[in-house]
Write a structure and sequence with these properties.
The chain is an alpha+beta fold. It has three helices and four strands. The chain folds into two domains: about 60 residues, no CATH class; about 80 residues. Helix content is about 55%, strand content about 25%. Helix 1 packs antiparallel against helix 2. The longest helix has about 40 residues. It starts with 7 loop residues before the first strand and ends with a strand. The model has no long low-confidence stretch (mean pLDDT about 90).
Length: about 150
């Protein structure tokens, strides 16, 4: 019996796709809504923390506040506005994704991301074909593995 040791083990990206089902849409919408709620909470916390910091600086300073105090307050406002802008951008992206999910048709395939797998390659194998592997899920269950495993 001839046992060939002339092979390599390599990593490859495997595309994970999901079939859009009612359950998949509901779960995706719930996840996105949860992200939106978290962002809203972060925005509220940011505003509260900024107000506290500004109030504390104002309490500790002379009245009327001097230029250093005004600069501190301005710096806080700039940092808050920058973070607020980042959070609003995240919120906008989540809202767009939510809208896209709502527009998806049932039984449509959508990309879920990628994972890695290790595969064996030997002389004579077609590397391009071995690299093109997909997993298709329906409600989290593997329905099909596409490509040369």
């Amino acid at each position: 019996m001839d046992v060939s040791t002339n092979h390599l083990l390599l990593k490859r990206p495997v595309t994970v796709k999901a079939i859009v089902t009612t359950r998949w849409k509901e779960e995706a919408q719930q996840q996105l809504q949860s992200q939106l709620n978290q962002i809203d909470q972060q925005l509220q916390q940011l505003e509260t923390q900024a107000q506290r910091a500004i109030t504390e600086i104002q309490k500790q300073s002379l009245q009327p506040p001097g230029p250093q105090v005004m600069q501190q307050i301005e710096n806080i406002q700039m940092q808050v506005n920058q973070r607020k802008s980042e959070l609003l951008e995240q919120k906008n992206q989540s809202l767009q994704q939510l809208q896209q999910v709502q527009l998806l048709e049932l039984n449509q395939e959508v990309n879920q991301g990628q994972i890695e797998s290790i595969f064996r390659i030997e002389p004579g194998d077609n590397l391009v074909e071995k690299m093109q592997v997909e997993i298709l899920l329906r409600d989290g269950v593997v329905e099909e593995i596409r490509g040369d495993i």
